[in-house]
Structures are given as C-alpha cells and as structure tokens.
Design brief:
The protein has about 550 residues and is mainly alpha-helical. Helix content is about 75%, strand content about 0%. It folds into two domains: about 15-205 and about 265-440 and about 480-515, Growth Hormone, Chain: A, CATH 1.20.1250.20; about 210-265. It starts with a helix and ends with a strand.
Length: about 550
Amino acid sequence: MTATDRATASEASPGYARRWWVLATMTVCLLVVITGNTILNVAIPTLQRELGATQGELQWAVDAYILVFAGLLFSWGVIGDRIGRKRVLLIGLSIFALGSVFAAFSDSPIELIGWRAVMGIGGAAVQPTTLAVITNVFPPRERGRAIGVWAGTAGIAVAGGPLAGGAVLEHLWWGAVFLIGVPVALLGIVAVVAFVPESRDPSPGRLDIPGVLLSIAALAGLVYGIIHGGSGAGWTTPGVLVPLVGGLVLLAVFVWLQRRSTHPALDVSLFRNPAFSAAAAALGLNFFALLGATFYLVYYLQGVRGYTPLQSGAALIPVALGMALMAPRSSGLADRFGAKAVCASGFLLIALSFVGVQLLGPTTQVWLLLVVLSVQGLGMGAVMAPATESIMSVVPREKAGAGAAVNNSVRQVGGALGVAILGSVLAASYAAHLGTAVDALPAGARAGAGESIVATLQAVAQVEAGGDEHAARAAAGLVEPAREAFVSAMHTTAVFTAGAAIVAAFVVLVWLPGRRSKERPSRSDSKEQRSVDDGQPRRTP
C-alpha cells in the first residue's frame, strides 16, 4: 500500500475495511427494488386478462410505483442524511416487502395500483440510499469502479425481473410475481444490519413537506394527462388539458418555491452546473427509452410472436447482459476518453438499436431480435455509470443522500414519462392502424378491443368460445390484421424512442464535460475529509 493509499484509508469511514461486503449488500438492496418494478413487465398481458385491467390501468400499475418513488426521493434523501442512511435502508426494505405481499393478493386493478404506490414509498427509501452509502464508504479512486458495479446490477435486474416473473407465471398465479422479492428483501435487511456502517450529515436540512406534496401532484398531473390523451380521449379535451396544464403550472411553482426555500426538497441550484444538468438529462432520457421500450416490446413478444411470459422474459436477457457488461467498464472508458464521448457513443448505439426495431416483424428470425436488444443494452450500459458518477462528483460527500435522490429521481421520472408517452403513442398508433378491422367482432365485444393487441386477441378468444361459428370465423380473421397493426405501431413508437436517444446524444455532446483533468479534483473529492460517520465529522490533519 502506498503512502497515499494509507492516508486515504486512515481517513476513510469505518466501513472502508469491509467496503466490498457493503457493495455486495447494496447490490442486493438494489436488486430488490428494481426487480420488484421490472418483474411487472411480463405480467402486464396476464394482468389484463386476469384482472380485466384496461390499457390505462396497466400503465398506472407501472407508473404508480414510479410516481410515488420519484416524488419521495428528495425527502428520503434528506431523511437519510438526517437520521442515518442505514436506518432508512431498513425502513425502506420493510415497507417494500410489506407492499409486495399486499400487491400479490390484490383483487382489482385499483387495489393493485394502490399497493404498487406503497412499494414506491419503500423503493424511494432504498435505491438512492444504496448510492449514498457507496459514495460514503468508497474513496474517490475506487468510487467509479464501485458505481460501475452498482449500475451493472441495475442492468442485471432489468432482465432478472422479467425472467423471474415469466418463470413464476409458468407455474403460479400472477400475484406470485410480487412475492419472490420478499425473501430477498429479508436477506438485504440481515446484510444491512451485519455490514453497513451508519452515516449521516452533521448539518441536515429540514424536511420540505409542502415541496414533496407539490412535486407528487405535478408529476401525477402530467403523467395522467399523457396517459389519458394517448388512450383516445383526445388531446384537446378538458380531461386531458386540465391535468397537463395543471401539472406544468405546479411544476413551475415547485421550482420557484425550491429556489427560495431554506430547506428545499430539491436543491435546484445544482442544475446551474452544466455537468450536473447534462448528466441528469442523460439519465432521464436513458430510462425514458429503457422502460418505455420494454413496455411495448413485451406486447410484441407475447401478443405478436405468441411467446409465453417466461420466453418473453428470456428474450429480454440481451438488454440486461449488455448493460451488466458495459456499465462496470464504462467508468474506465470515461476516465480514458471522457464522459462526454462515452455517453454520446452510448446514445448513438441506443438510437441504432431502435432503428433496428424497424426490421422486426411478426415472423422475424429470433437472432435479429437478440442483436437489436444486445446493442440497446450496450448503449444503455455505456451511459449509466459515467452519468451517475458525473452527478455524484458535483455533490459533497456529506450530502450524498440528496445527490443520490436527484440521480434516482431523474431516472424514475424519465422512466415514468417513457411508459406514459411511448405507451400513449403506441396505443394511438395501434388504434389508427387497426382502423375498422375491429368491426369484424360482434358489437358487444368491440368495447376496448382496439386499445391494445392483448385486448384484441382476448376479445377474439371470447367470441370463439361463445359457440357462434359464423362470429368465430369472422373474429379469427382479425388476428393477423391486429398483429400487423401492432408491428406498424411499434415501428412508429420506436422512431420516437430513437429520436429521444439522438436528442440525448446532442445534450451530452454540448454540455457534458470532456475528459477530467487528473490534477483538478472534483468538488466532492475536495470535501472528502468532511465525511460524516455516526454523526462525527473527520477533519484532514
């Protein structure tokens, strides 16, 4: 060990000696909350059949978690900095496990949406705190590698959720997809108690409850308006315009109040730093593409290609493998070439993958699908770690909870808008391409049949089971037009997704800093010795 290493170690937190065990524990905690969210993806068609959920209700089942998660991130970050991050981890894991159990036994779409919101409360406590703990335990020279592993774990969870969900749906009822994360959460609780040191900010801010409520209301209004407009209600109707405009107004009021608050839920002054703003935008657009694309790709795999939930989960593995392989390596690439070059290259790969979606049809060979998804995963993995590290390098280490909250909030808001916007584009485009073909169904079976391919195929199956041979033949003729209409709608939606990736590439090329000078430490590095463990500041001699 060099003299520099010994000095760094001597000033490190008490968790330094067992930092790799801490990192392993944080990856388990991260797996719990991300897998608990992505596991719902392959169950969406099953939920539509078993619970009788509409397309809008399905989108809300996804977005209820994300909205509550995003709205509470700022508060949990401040709470963790105040009462201790270890304590917040234990609280969050417990809430998440409890919400998962009740979600598994929901009797209606509305009940499921409610318990998904409770899961979001727990997830908001856990996910940013894992990053804050890593930032506090690891010294600057190792932090990039640790964040790369953390980001790679998120990639594994992206595929681990759908794959595990598909395996469960092969043998058990739909509610079991929420139960498989409960024992993992319990394992995480035990590991947190055993390995994670307590850390907090010596000068924490007060909790901004009005700001929290305002942010939740603003996000809910925006996403509700987007979902409702895309479901066919019409973008100029009061039911769409009121929540959209209201959400934008509330968001503007939120920013205005945060700039003047002495204890803001979100420190908006951070966004004056170009590196911080560009990295936040990059993460948001990355997850916009990831979650939005996963939403419509699951429909393609199960509705068009006829895959089972397990097969569709397995088909998404290349995305996760690409992210898991690239994310830990992207930090080293960013050190060598700069975060600007690495993130921009990643977004260009993402755009290329969605151009490749144009080649996918009802009978496309599987290898082409796997190549497209692999390129998508590599591109997303190249963005996640450098962008995350760029955000955390701007924030002092004792404020790691607040910085991690911003990092995760832009990810979740981007994901929520991805599901809402791309899901709405998909629904509107599908209905337009299907057109009057749905008239082949009897009048009583047409309601809602044109909003998604799963709803169409379910309506066809109900007519075929009705015993009217003439109606059954007419309905069967709708299957192929429905599949063709969905593929056309998916192609249209993929163009929007590729456009978002190109915009993101432009953002990082213009505003994200290039290769960082070795001689100029980041703001967080300069304040490294002010880290607080168990509430006691450590000073540089």
